[in-house]
Specification:
about 0% strand; globular; disordered N terminus; 9 helices
């Protein structure tokens, strides 16, 4: 393997390069994904997630309107539709499956950690264990929440 093929192998897809170049937005994305995984364990995560009113979950308090548009129209690597459309399709599919399985309990809720986190982790190429192990990120998240401090 040559040096050039090594660097190509680990390059981010083009849609991620633009997100990584905006440090504040990338921080918000990481907080959002982290919160989805830690909804049950962390009250601060739960509090932020419960403020979301957008059906695609891509919304305030995590993102501003221009960021929401950018994220919803982003086409993840290997997909033919935008992230907003993809979220809608997957949530519709999960809801339809749940309606068939959970008729007796009427529990049709979406699970942040099991239904949403994997979708957004894949779209943003975030490995949940890497995020959890990033002590600097977790420390900043605990201290400052969504605020980005360089």
């Amino acid at each position: 393997m040559t040096a050039s093929s090594k660097s190509t192998k680990h390059r981010n897809p083009p849609h991620l390069n633009a997100l990584h170049s905006n440090s504040a937005l990338w921080h918000k994305i990481k907080v959002f994904v982290f919160d989805l995984r830690h909804f049950k364990e962390r009250t601060d995560s739960r509090d932020r997630l419960e403020l979301i009113t957008d059906p695609s979950y891509i919304g305030a308090p995590y993102f501003e309107s221009s960021e929401i548009h950018t994220l919803k129209t982003l086409v993840p690597d290997g997909q033919e539709c935008s992230l907003g459309q993809l979220v809608e399709l997957i949530l519709d599919e999960k809801l339809n499956r749940r309606m068939k399985k959970r008729v007796a309990t009427a529990d049709y809720r979406v699970c942040a950690a099991h239904d949403l986190a994997p979708l957004f982790e894949a779209a943003f190429a975030i490995k949940p264990k890497d995020l959890q192990r990033d002590k600097r990120f977790v420390k900043q998240l605990t201290a400052d929440g969504l605020l980005w401090k360089q």
